[in-house]
Amino acid sequence: MTGVAQADQLDTALREEVHAAARRARAAATALAVVPRGDKDRALHAMADALLDRADEVLAANERDLAAGRDAGLTKALLDRLALSTERVATVADGLRVVAGLPDPVGEVVRGGVLANGLELRQVRVPLGVVGIVYEARPNVTVDAAGLAVKAGNAVLLRGSSSARHSNRALVEVLRAALSAAGLPADAVQLLPSEDRASVRHLITARGLVDVVLPRGGAGLIDAVVREATVPTIETGVGNCHVYVDADADLDAALRIVLNAKTRRPSVCNAAETVLVHAAVAAGFVPRLVGALHDAGVTVHGDGAFVELGGDDVVAATGADWETEYLSLDIAAAVVDSLDAAVAHIAEHGSGHTEAIVTGSLAAAREFTARVDAAAVMVNASTAFTDGGEFGMGAELGISTQKLHARGPMGLPELTSTKWIVWGDGHTRS
Amino acid sequence: MTGVAQADQLDTALREEVHAAARRARAAATALAVVPRGDKDRALHAMADALLDRADEVLAANERDLAAGRDAGLTKALLDRLALSTERVATVADGLRVVAGLPDPVGEVVRGGVLANGLELRQVRVPLGVVGIVYEARPNVTVDAAGLAVKAGNAVLLRGSSSARHSNRALVEVLRAALSAAGLPADAVQLLPSEDRASVRHLITARGLVDVVLPRGGAGLIDAVVREATVPTIETGVGNCHVYVDADADLDAALRIVLNAKTRRPSVCNAAETVLVHAAVAAGFVPRLVGALHDAGVTVHGDGAFVELGGDDVVAATGADWETEYLSLDIAAAVVDSLDAAVAHIAEHGSGHTEAIVTGSLAAAREFTARVDAAAVMVNASTAFTDGGEFGMGAELGISTQKLHARGPMGLPELTSTKWIVWGDGHTRS
User: Fold this and answer.
1) N or C: which end of chain A has fewer CB atoms below 10 A?
2) Considering the entire predicted model, what is its pTM?
3) B208 burial class (0-12, 13-18, 19+ CB within 10 angstroms)?
């Protein structure tokens, strides 16, 4: 057999493996869709208990991934994302208990009423069905995603990173055993092979077998998914977030908010990447802001006005800076002449994730929140608050930056669809 | 220049034409997003008035399409779909007034509350932005789509059928003039070129320029869109709908419902294509049902039990019959041993559009509505009721059979996204 023919045969076998998992997931999802809340919550607690009971197995598997990662020369940051510990296992187990405590989205009546002809209409939430998730190093996502999926009555196909494959395999084995013991179908949680990138392709093209795929990852993954997917997908992630300091801002609050939004966790998507300062307050505020950012270790990439006002601590920005999601201790900075100019800058360069205004003016706050088109718009608050946990959703499955189906943090309701239920009395339509 | 190079150049020019329209649409959508309801409703009434005032122009343009259609040998049914008349123009104008009377979805607070830290959260409806619609012959869709899009604060790119191009051009010219006169941006309603199929491709790949595309049409269009689109899309349309007559059915109601669901308008997606009869009532009911369907001109494609009970009026069904959306006076028919078997049959062959049960048993009704996975599930009512107008949504933009974003009839709320608005007081995250 030629190398090409052999590769084709392996690819066909991999596709069949993904499709077989999806068919098992469909059967599990069909059963899970009608399981009452109490049984699902008991299973979530059983999953949490099992993680604690079998933490040693999970940590041993994680150690294998870490050793392989060190051999492969993974960065310290990546190794940290990959690492589990007794504490981290306890945290993800607690996450499952939080999800158990959240209301069941399934069955919620979204709209309803009685028509003129007497038909009774209810639009109720139902599970999406079979949900695929493609994600990177962190093995805690495996548990979060499984917990949210099960609570919302879905079966989940997990396609984690190959660097976390031993950890994910151990976690999924524990979760599946707990599901079975609790009387729910183990196939509601399945791990897809991660050794070959092609398993992603087979997942996102399994139309009819998979209802929706959530890609969580960098721009490369998202682009590949958008190009190749035939299954509906929800785009997550890129955050080129702005903080606009208005002419009427409380400047102490503005300083705190910019510093928090930039430095709290620079590597996450809700971190601020650009600060815009109204010209009316620039002369006094820019030097102070630049000094504080410099003290916090942040490199400021400023426009002409920022360079002029901020002095040597400001690096001259290039056009690329306005587009960049640094995910590091860097921030782009510009002076704008008006709220209009700030809104226009954000419309041109923002990624539709989170945008903030700092102002004491009610008119400015209303104008900014009405005109800025993003998943979240903050008034006098840090961009860092855009987060499922902060918004009271329990865990989250990522932050959607698309407009269809889900926008912003995705929790339980975002993992559901709806169904119209109509009760009549022999009604026919004229 | 070679023929290929010339074709490439034309394709590039067409793409640029579609993209330029999308950029104008974006500017219009940005303006329209913050227009208050009163101004939008006045514009909708102005559009309706203009259609009546300039009906002669529209009808003259429609006559050109009809003449071309007759020359091209279009079927009588297609010519009827294409035809406008004074009455039909008045009906679409009335549709605009109905939409004006509906609540504005924009600004509706979907969820909200105050977090423990004092942050005030509201999730509000916002327009989707730039919406593309690909549709077939009927020119009334042009007006319905424009009206719904404008009311929900969107700009719309209309890609109608080339067979209706003169009618659509006249309608869009009238609507744009009315929008301008009412002080709203005319570019909120634009017609894309329809002479070349490639304009569909350019629309569904205009990622970043177009927020969502709704393909309304046959399986061929839907498949092409699913394969090639990089813009998010909402699938509409295929309806392989079932009526299940339960053991506890009121058989008079069952007869009325099956006849209504099959014969009221056989060509629409909510028409019934299969009837399933519980074995316990088959002996008495099947002959009666077959007789009534035969009298109504319907050909029954039955399984073995139907052939046995229904006699010469039943044609033996093949495997393909269970999958077929006839859209004609044909119906597939089978006897099933239980509600379970009916649910399994629907899960295997249904298209997730509308499924109905006829029963007097509360347990059967609850079981069927819980377990059948479809956009709409009817109890003792005809499948024909799945319709935006019947559901009180005013006009509709098609019936979604996908689970993401919109499921069932799509009205104004389905043409919106949401935005989280968060008010703080200098809040930073720890």
Assistant:
1) C
2) 0.91
3) exposed
